[in-house]
Amino acid sequence: MKYCPYCKSTLIKQQKSHALRYRCQNKTCAYVNWNNPIPVVAVIVEVSSGVVLAHNVKWQKDFYSVISGFLESNESPEACAVRETKEELNLTVEKIDLVGCYEYPANNQIIIAYHVKAFGVIKLNHELDDYRIVPVSELKPWQGGTGRAIKDWIKRREPSDKKVPADAKLISMKRVYQSYNYFSKNLLWFYRVAQRRSMSRYRQICSKTFCYERST
Ligand SMILES: [Zn+2]
Question: Structure pTM?
Fold first, then answer.
């Protein structure tokens, strides 16, 4: 920016409020370019089989990311996330959560990131030319920007959302059975030991056994 957007005078760089900023030379105008970051809404769109990553027509061939867009005037960030999901992917949001806010100095933006659960048939708008649905376990968050939002979202996911191995219940039942089996098999031996030693020694051994079981 070279000229004042109000009076068209030349802008000069000057120290103001702890930083060098462009300000208008015209003293009656006194315009200052504060260069505040622009808010951008990013949306981690989750469908039944994973997260939708889209390819922007302007991006390098192999770069796919979550969708994002600028806030309209008088629009809440949440409404923007719902709108962008519909506009860019043609998906309808059924659940929305705020992930966090992230600075993105490279583009002088502040990213307000949401996670949404959405449904429908994907239809890309003119800004996008391809998409991929990536399972959450295969997401590779990049440094900075929306990558940090993805990293935080993965960390914070509810346990019920995480992929539970189908045999998890079976494994835990097996462990309970093994613990029980181990203790009952050794009970007779403990009893014999207790007969030979005092009852307090017996209790000590039993408590040790319980500790051992708990630590496995
Ligand atoms: Zn001016």
Answer: 0.70
